[in-house]
Amino acid sequence: EDQVTQSPEALRLQEGESSSLNCSYTVSGLRGLFWYRQDPGKGPEFLFTLYSAGEEKEKERLKATLTKKESFLHITAPKPEDSATYLCAVHPFGDAGNMLTFGGGTRLMVKP
Amino acid sequence: DTGVSQNPRHKITKRGQNVTFRCDPISEHNRLYWYRQTLGQGPEFLTYFQNEAQLEKSRLLSDRFSAERPKGSFSTLEIQRTEQGDSAMYLCASSTLAGRTDTQYFGPGTRLTVL
Q1: Does residue B42 contact residue A35 with C-beta atoms inside 8 Å?
Q2: Residue by residue, what is the 3-state secondary structure of B45-109?
């Protein structure tokens, strides 16, 4: 069974304090790994897709990386507006079809 | 506005009532998904349409839940005889295949509260 585990569940940072969020996954084969940002009361907003181990994607203060078992979302010099829940999801090969399997998310709070 | 839209945004109902939600996908997207999200958890897959055909259904989708996508455009999700455990955010996403995988874009969700 496909599994996605995110850690930590919650993370408090001071503005400018860089850190990383972890997404560990178990799938029979990975078609793609996705990162989303979700603000309270809103739907997830797409950030990145990663396909292969070693791949990296960047957007502003965010950089996502992928290994065969984990993905990291690195946040450099975060600002209060980066406060949100960050969700990781996998799209596996095989019988799972097109469904995404999500982790529980990491709730990030950045204090000024 | 070219994003996914969902209506209503909020729905409060009494236990035992039926409710229906609507999702309008991004216009050129032929794939449409429904997910359910409870507080503090990630979204859980419910069902998937390609055009008008419902191709996948989760075991979470009990016989009280039904989804349709007539003519392959908008979709509706109906919950019959609602229970308090149905209280959640119902998310719709749409996509189209581009390359190795498709990116699912989510709507704002419908928050259901069952009293």
Answers
A1: no
A2: EEEEEECCEEEEECCCCCCCEEEECHHHCCEEEEECCCCHHHCEEEEEEEECCECCECCCEECCC
Record the tokens describing residue A7, joined without a space: 């850690």
User: Is the CB of residue B58 less than 8 Å from the CB of residue A2?
Assistant: no
**A46, A49, A101 member nearest B101 (Cβ):** A49
Three-class DSSP category at A43:
coil
CB contacts, 8 Å: B107 with chain A: 43
- Reading the block at residue B86, the tokens are 């149905």
What phi, psi does B84 have (nearest 5°)? -60, -30
- Give the tens place of pLDDT for each residue, A45-78: 999 999 999 999 999 999 999 999 999 999 999 9
Find which of A6, A48, A66, A100 to mutate to test the B interface (most B CBs within 10 Å of its CB): A100
Q: Give residue A12's pLDDT.
A: 98
- Residue A36, pLDDT score: 98
Q: Tell me if B103 and A49 make a contact (CB, 8 A cut-off).
A: yes
- Inspect the interface and report whether the beta carbons of B42 and A42 lie closer than 8 Å: no
Q: How far apart are CA B28 and CA B12, in angstroms?
A: 32
CB A75 within 8 A of CB A82: yes
